[in-house]
Design a protein that fits this description.
Elements: E1 3-10, H1 13-28, E2 32-36, H2 47-78, H3 97-102, H4 117-155, E3 181-189, H5 193-199, E4 213-217, E5 221-229, H6 233-242, E6 246-248, H7 254-309, E7 315-322, H8 328-339, H9 344-351, E8 371-376
Antiparallel strand pairs: 1-7, 1-8, 2-7, 3-5, 3-6, 4-5
Length: 381
């Protein structure tokens, strides 16, 4: 499972024993794999500042999670022809995401713990905001290019009634430069091929005999050329329509056809040139954003633990990785049982929903006696 629970309990003797009891129970019952989660000693500041940081960190946590989801989706979209290789491009500091989380160490060089907490949070916020800004501009340019290319490709993949004909016809298919003659393109249903061959010369006066040629087909019909005098174009179109033949509005323009082909080549070349740099940027900055997100989780554990358990700072953080989705309910019951002494009245309300406590939501998923945060990596799969 790519799911982690990050919890903390006071670091006194009673709670260290509770943590040991939790490790024993979860190990014997095969409920989760547990490791200590190291968090440095930060400058606490005032409790009022911690309350403000608690709210700010909650919003920043949500923002960071949303950002890495967007970046993961961008990697999927860019690697459209190699989606099986996406996981190997979503790494954090060169390792897979679960390994980074389970072996997390605070980056002192990037986020000095000796700085005030407000400064550390500000550094993280600015870093994530800059990544989001760059993500928008880089992906917007690539997506515009991709959309223009897809639109051109769609034109060449429709049926004979709608698709571009520039990559089907050639100069030799047309009478060009004549003051009197013109070559038209006619779509004929497959069952009517014989009828077309027998009747096209007599659909109007001044049709050049034996001037028809099949130059393309799709599932429904074929594209035929026919040459006639310009003065009978409208009459020929009317008669053709009466016989269920469709004259396709197309006039051979060598410059326009060349322009279309050059535009396609240019877009393909530009996309290829942008692909590598964009993917590299996404890989590097996905890693940076993910690392910042886990640092935010560590900060939230610290701030909430101080607010919940008080000063002096003394708590132990533990990372749990549930083994099975079906076992998470049992794991929650074990944790609530082991740590319910941290808030006996509130914990009792979890077991007895009839007890009303103002301001408390009586839902196992809304309240925990211990500090708890969730890290769900499956959202990035």
């Amino acid at each position: 499972m790519s799911e982690f629970w990050l919890i903390s309990a006071p670091g006194d003797q009673e709670n260290l024993q509770a943590l040991e009891r939790m490790n024993t129970i979860t190990s014997k019952s095969n409920l989760s794999y547990n490791t200590k989660f190291s968090i440095p000693d930060f400058k606490v500041g005032t409790l009022d500042s911690l309350v403000g940081l608690s709210d700010e960190l909650g919003k920043l946590d949500t923002f960071a999670e949303s950002l890495i989801k967007k970046m993961a989706q961008s990697v999927v979209e860019v690697m459209e022809d190699a989606k099986g290789k996406v996981p190997e491009n979503l790494l954090a500091n060169g390792v897979d995401l679960p390994s980074f989380v389970t072996h997390f160490e605070w980056d002192m060089a990037k986020y000095p713990a000796k700085q005030p907490l407000v400064s550390v949070v500000d550094t993280l916020a600015k870093q994530l905001a800059q990544i989001e800004t760059d993500l928008k501009s880089r992906t917007a340019a690539y997506n515009t290019l991709k959309t223009n290319l897809e639109n051109l490709e769609k034109k060449s993949m429709g049926n004979l009634f709608t698709r571009t004909l520039s990559n089907i016809v050639s100069k030799e298919d047309f009478v060009l430069g004549s003051e009197y003659l013109i070559t038209l393109l006619v779509i004929v249903p497959k069952p009517s091929y014989t009828k077309w061959q027998k009747t096209y010369e007599s659909l109007s006066d001044m049709v050049v005999p034996r001037s028809t040629k099949l130059i393309a087909e799709d599932n429904e019909g074929g594209l035929f050329t026919v040459t006639l005098f310009r003065k009978v174009i409208e009459d020929f179109k009317t008669k053709a329509r009466e016989n269920k033949f469709t004259v396709r509005e197309f006039y051979y323009d060598e410059k326009e056809i060349k322009r279309e082909r050059e535009e396609m080549s240019r877009l393909l070349s530009d996309k290829k040139q942008q692909y590598g740099p964009l993917l590299r940027w996404l890989k590097v900055n996905f890693s940076e954003a993910f690392i910042a997100w886990i640092h935010l989780k560590a900060l939230r554990v610290f701030v909430e633990s101080v607010l919940r358990y008080g000063l002096p700072v003394n708590f132990q953080a533990v990372l749990l990785q549930p083994h099975k989705k079906s076992s998470t309910k049992r794991l929650r019951e074990v944790l609530n049982s082991v740590f319910r002494h941290l808030d006996q009245v509130a914990a009792a309300s979890i077991l007895d929903a009839s007890v009303e406590i103002p301001g408390l939501q009586l839902n196992n998923q809304d309240y925990f006696p211990y500090v708890y945060f969730h890290i769900d990596l499956s959202l990035l799969d």
